[in-house]
Amino acid sequence: MTAQLYRIRKTLMIFALGAALLITLLLNTVRQTSGQLAVTPIKPLEIDQTAAAQRLAGAIRIKTITYDELTRTSATEFLRLHAYLAQKFPGVHRALKREIVNNYSLLYTWQGSDPSARPILFMAHQDVVPINPGTQQAWQSEPFAGTIRGGYVWGRGSWDDKGNLLAIMEAVELLAAKGIKPRQTVYFGFGHDEEAGTRNGEDGARMIAALLKSRGVKLDFVLNEGLLITQGVMKGLDSPVALIGIAEKGYMTLTLSAEATGGHSSMPPSRSAIGSLSAALSRLEQQQMPASIRDVSSEMFAAVAPEFSGINRVFLSNLWLFGPLVRMQLEKQPSARAMFRTTTALTVIRAGNKEQVLPVKAEAQVNFRLLPGDSQQSVIRHAKEAVADDSIRIEARGWEASRVSTTGSAAYRAINRTIREVFPGTIVAPGLMVGGTDSRFMEEIADHIYRFSPVRAEIVDLPRFHGINERISVSNFAEMIRFYHRLLANVSAGDYAE
Ligand SMILES: [Zn+2]
Fold this sequence. Notes:
The protein is α+β, with helices and mostly antiparallel strands. 38% of the residues lie in helices and 22% in strands. The strands form four sheets. Strands 1, 2, 3, 6, 7, 8, 15 and 16 form an eight-stranded mixed β-sheet that branches. It has a four-stranded antiparallel β-sheet with strand order 11-13-9-14, with helices on one face. A three-stranded antiparallel β-sheet has the order 4-5-17. The longest helix has 30 residues, at 2-31. It is globular, with a radius of gyration of 26 Å. The chain starts with a helix and ends with a helix. Zinc ion (ZN) binds next to loops. Zinc ion binds next to loops.
């Protein structure tokens, strides 16, 4: 009898707990209503799309390629691009002051009407990555021909980043032609070495930042290239999603080296340089930095969760419970994996050059991309623990993750509003940039840095970035111009000032 009563009580208790859990999950789900900004639709700005596309195509024909070393040929190409911009955008060049920074970078100053308003900076880069050797044939249009075909402008830089650069120029040209002036001073900084690998921005954006700093400029915010408007990338969400990068990952390369007594391979020691190093590398790859949904990624999920329907919405609204499950599901894609952890990538290995000779040294490079919140020191500590071999030398170089810019600023609101106005029906959320951009040099002189490109992309388009068949649709390019045009109006208006 007692045993039976106990069983009934236990069943009831489990039932009650289950019901309580279900209610909590559902309450969390319905309580998180859409936080998307309500905007009144605006009439799209009229643009001569064909003429604008042709100007972009012309810029693509100028081969401002960044190789590891700035070559002579590229140098003349940058000067050609400067002349091209001056010729195609006369209004900009009349209304704004143009300065050449460190030979090839450009800084434009558009004097504001209100000296008490804090200045802002829009960035883009003039340089493009080269064509990967052997892929030239796979292009449907010659990468530097600037072809317009099938509603697209094709070519290297159409997306990254001449699209943004030319769209900014087009927008300012339209405003300047009407004699419109911004309220606050607006700077436009166009670097020339954003794509220069680990030196990215050292010669361009860093020098622009130094020049502004020497003049005592304190920026309210910076907008640079960054995350996109994607559709179909977040499974279960059909609307386009615009992510505004509020932070970007840091970068660190560890060089690991193992030494051993060399000699003839007929009499090997029990421990070789290659053996020790390989074991260390294998441990590093196995013991990844811990992953979690925190900071920027949790802010992103909080913003998008209410936009999902069905079970996805329940999961995303209850990350306290389903966080690990959601993360495991998403981590199947490398791009999503990179959002949740400091990544470890084994990239270079060097040892030995003759099959019967034992090398005295083996060396490897491991590249980490640091999540905001992890520091170079903490990653080095983790790496040393994972390697667990004092005979391996470890040297580090790189930079920390960026600060996280708030979504509560007037600048974020203005960008958010502009996206909702120009791209109706688009969900806006903050996001993390997993790659690095040259905006990191602006941290010292800017309160907020946002990384966003008004470029539309679907999953199939993502490999075009730095890859083959890079292109932008003529209609999207017109939207990009509208975006910058509207953003400049919004930041000049009262909403921004509050
Ligand atoms: Zn870029």
